[in-house]
Design goal:
By secondary structure, the protein is α+β, with helices and mostly antiparallel strands. Helix content is about 25%, strand content about 30%. Strand 4 and strand 5 form a beta hairpin. Helix 13 runs parallel beside helix 14.
Length: about 850
């Protein structure tokens, strides 16, 4: 300190003191250093463990406004706990097989999570998808999961129901405002999975607690799994295989974490870092290993329900780098003594810099960080509810209603007749400013009595937006026009007073329209397109949502084995012409194929499949060219591939067959897709663009009615025992197989002069005894670009005179006049156009319930 004392002058009884304090100068230097070096001193300060222990105090929110209150004397009679805080709202489900998934929305901007009671769902950082997810109310099998494997017995199950779908002894799912919990029992192992989001860190924590209720020591391997995206959901849906090429992964043993980043494709694209880390549980046994190559983890031709990495115990391969199909998977092993419990937490987070990513990885590598996140989740949720001005009961209702927007419930949608009457093209919605790209919630209001319901709808819309869920809320004033327009003014006032005032007439916002100003066709389409239609009549949303529960129960208890969905007539003349031409083509080609297979003389008639019918169908021992271990060219110019015992080529071996009007792609497993006019804009069946699993959207099933055995004439989706001989040729692909005295030959091709795909199946009984074989043909309709978008728009009908299921998507303006049909040449025993009925809830094409 430097002090300068000045003597007081006469008449001035004071002394002026000039001081220079070193710590003031030091603080100025530190402040200047912080400004020039990116807050270096703050980072050093927060690196101290004692400071980090008190960091939570810095997350207290600054009040937006200050309200002065008179001091009050505490009265014991009034010092009661807040009923909202003392009574948490939890939705409890005791089965994963509800008619439609129930969801929980966790976190808020920038990190949000949606998870169903089966354990599937998505994770989003701002507008970017962290892990891959596809909306599918039937299967609900995509998202982030954790596999468990009993090392001694080899039994495999998952922490939730998906993706393994192994039946549990008992199952409970608890969907709360702040977290999602799944409890299940599998023998002597009880599992509790807790899922919470930490938006402040851009993270989600999934803690799995295992309890050994038996009398013997158990060792259990836990393997996390998620498919890395780090791009917008729409970009991933359009071309996932291409987007995967830009992701690179690394493994960091010091914090047992996998990091992934996407290489930017332009100078304006922001780089994000995704981290998946396992904590240092004291119950871990052996090393922690990782896998980031999906091909190695899942296995060629397999799915996440039975991945190759779960075939045996032991460490994962540790493959990292620029893999073609990136995932994050970490495997740990825990040892459970009798009557003991062990917990392991897996945390997934996204950071905007590498330094921040490693800072968070170090934090969540410690088990206390996950425990702290779980403890603070409830407090954080309560603060968020207070800021939104809603109760915990409201939050539960909003989340239940969100589930009906993701997965529509017939009780909250228009009747099938209204949906048929309201079929129209998407530009009709554009004419009133609604895009139709997001789920639509239509709220109709006729009197002032419905204003409380409308205000609650506006609160729900803001709640969803804060949790990253985009919904177009259309408020329809159905009162007859009058001079005063008092209801109109009150609706506008309610919208302007709500948090949705800044999103009026914007995508994912609020749209206020009057019924008398809408054309009849636009109004009918708006009603038919809405996934949820609510009548604002003064009742609470909780009462309105309750009306959907009886419909779910009725749907679940429906005993009919088959039924027809949809109605309406469709150009029978054109369909008849196509049907006759297709049958003639099929008979001609089938005769030719039979001649080649049975070694008889060639029949008359042209080979409509570009002259390849007989050569594609013949699978006799012919001279073959040089092979590569999987296949070889034949003397006819085809390529023959032999598949046996699940041994597949390392990548799909596809054949593209097309005429000017239509085409299809088929792989050596029998998977692929079919299109008309455009292979991108109007796919009849889905194109998954998945070279690893190569899922099938079309299939033929054979079912032995005596033994109950089921298989397909193609290796996918349900392979039979023995060898499959596949031949790709110009204009046709064929599959030959024999199982237990039943020989099948399937030839796939196109009619030369019509947009008709032909699947010609010949079944020969070589067993020497009568057999009863049921044939089931299956196809998933797309009728557009992505089935995930068009599944709510396709209308189906059945025409008995043709034995055909018809399908149409009028929502697509380019193909609104097109009709697709699916038919068999033989008399039908049963039919359905309901995918959930055939596959079963949480079912799959590998083991459909319809068989």
């Amino acid at each position: 300190e430097a002090l300068d004392y000045t003597r007081p002058e006469p008449g001035r009884p004071f002394a002026l003191v000039r001081t220079w304090m070193a710590h003031h100068v030091g603080m100025s230097i530190v402040a200047l250093t912080n400004a020039l070096t990116g807050q270096r001193w703050q980072r050093r300060f927060h690196a101290d463990p004692m400071v980090r222990a008190a960091e939570l105090l810095l997350h207290e929110r600054v009040p937006r406004r200050l309200e002065l209150q008179e001091p009050q004397t505490a009265r014991a009679s009034e010092a009661l706990p807040d009923p909202e805080l003392d009574r948490p709202v939890v939705r409890e489900l005791d089965t994963p097989d509800t008619p439609a998934p129930h969801v929980a929305l966790l976190g808020y901007w920038p990190y949000t999570v949606m998870v169903s009671q089966c354990g599937a769902g998505y994770s989003r950082f701002e507008q970017q998808a962290v892990s891959r997810w596809r909306a599918d109310a039937t299967r609900d099998s995509t998202g982030q999961f954790c596999y468990l494997r009993d090392v001694a017995s080899g039994r495999v199950w998952s922490a939730g129901h998906q993706p393994v779908c192994a039946p549990a002894d008992w199952y409970r799912a608890y969907l709360a405002t702040d977290r999602m919990e799944i409890h299940r029992g599998d023998g002597s192992i009880e599992t509790r999975t807790e899922i919470v989001a930490v938006p402040a860190d851009g993270a989600e924590v999934r803690r799995i607690t295992l309890t050994n209720t038996g009398d013997e020591e158990r060792e259990v391997e836990l393997t996390s799994y998620g498919e890395i995206v780090l791009a917008t959901p729409d970009a991933d849906r359009v071309h996932p295989a291409f987007g995967n090429l830009f992701v690179e992964t690394e493994w960091h043993d010091w914090c047992t974490a996998v990091t992934a980043t996407r290489r930017p494709r332009s100078a304006k694209e922001r780089t994000l870092w995704c981290v998946h880390v396992a904590d240092t549980s004291p119950h871990l046994v052996g090393p922690v290993t990782c896998e980031t190559d999906r091909a190695r983890f899942v296995g060629r031709g397999r799915t996440t329900s039975h991945p190759a990495a779960l075939d045996s115990a032991g460490p994962l391969t540790g493959t990292t780098g620029a893999v073609l199909d990136p995932v994050f998977a970490i495997r740990v092993r825990v040892r459970l003594a009798p009557r003991n419990t062990a917990a392991v937490a897996f945390t997934t987070l996204v950071a905007t810099s590498r330094e921040r990513a490693f800072e968070l990885a170090d934090r969540y590598h410690h088990p206390y960080a996950a425990q702290r996140a779980l403890e603070l989740a409830w407090t954080s949720a309560q603060v968020d509810l207070r800021e939104l001005g809603i109760t915990a009961e409201d939050s539960g209702v909003f989340q239940e209603l969100a589930g009906h927007l993701f997965y529509p419930n017939p009780a909250l949608r228009p009747t099938p007749e209204e949906q048929v009457r309201g079929q129209g093209a998407q530009p009709l919605l554009w004419s009133i400013g609604v895009s139709g790209d997001w789920p639509i919630l239509l709220g109709s209001i006729e009197s002032e009595d419905g204003l409380p319901t409308l205000r609650q709808l506006l609160q729900a819309h803001h709640y969803w937006r804060r949790r990253g869920m985009a919904v177009d809320l259309v408020v329809l004033n159905t009162r007859a026009p009058s001079y005063l327009q008092d209801l109109e003014h009150r609706i506008v006032a309610a919208i302007q007073a709500s948090p949705a005032a800044d999103s009026v007439d914007r995508p994912g916002g609020v749209f206020h329209r009057r019924r008398e100003l809408l054309p009849a066709d636009v109004l009918a389409m708006l009603r038919a397109t809405a996934r949820v239609h609510l009548l604002c009549d003064g009742r609470s949303l909780a009462r309105l949502v309750q009306t959907a529960a009886p419909a779910e129960e009725a749907q679940e208890a429906e005993p009919e084995p088959v039924r027809t969905r949809g109605s309406g007539a469709v150009a029978p003349g054109l369909l008849t012409q196509l049907r006759v031409r297709a049958v003639r083509s099929a008979k001609s080609l089938l005769d030719t194929a039979a001649t080649a297979v049975m070694g008889e003389e060639e029949g008359e008639g042209s080979a409509l499949l570009a002259g390849r019918g007989s050569r594609a169908a013949g699978h006799g021992d012919r001279e073959r060219g040089v092979g590569n271990g999987y296949g070889a060219p034949t003397a006819d110019g085809d390529y023959e591939i032999r598949i046996e015992g699940g041994r597949l080529p390392p990548a799909p071996w596809a054949n593209v067959i097309a005429n000017p009007a239509a085409g299809f792609l088929v792989t050596e497993r029998g998977a692929g897709c079919t299109w008309a006019a455009s292979s991108y804009f109007f796919r009849l069946t889905p194109w998954h663009n998945d070279p690893v699993s190569d899922p099938a959207g079309e299939a033929l099933y054979l079912h032995d009615e005596e033994t109950g055995a089921a298989w397909c004439p193609t290796p996918a989706p349900l392979a039979g025992e023995g060898r499959y001989t596949v031949r790709h040729g110009p204009g046709a692909t064929s599959f030959a197989h024999e199982r237990e005295g039943i020989a099948t030959t399937l030839v796939l091709g196109l009619a030369e002069d019509a947009p008709v795909k032909l699947s010609l199946l010949r079944v020969v009984n070589t067993s020497g005894r009568p057999r009863r074989i049921a044939l089931t043909a299956y196809a998933e309709w797309t009728l557009g670009v992505l089935r995930e978008h068009t599944q709510h728009q396709v209308q189906t009908a059945f025409q008995p005179e043709h034995g055909a299921i018809l399908a149409r998507n009028r929502f697509d303006p380019h193909f609104a006049g097109q009709v697709a049909f699916f038919a068999l040449s033989e008399p039908l025993a049963a039919h359905t156009a309901d995918r959930r009925e055939f596959l079963g809830r949480n079912g799959s094409v590998e083991s459909p319930a319809g068989l």
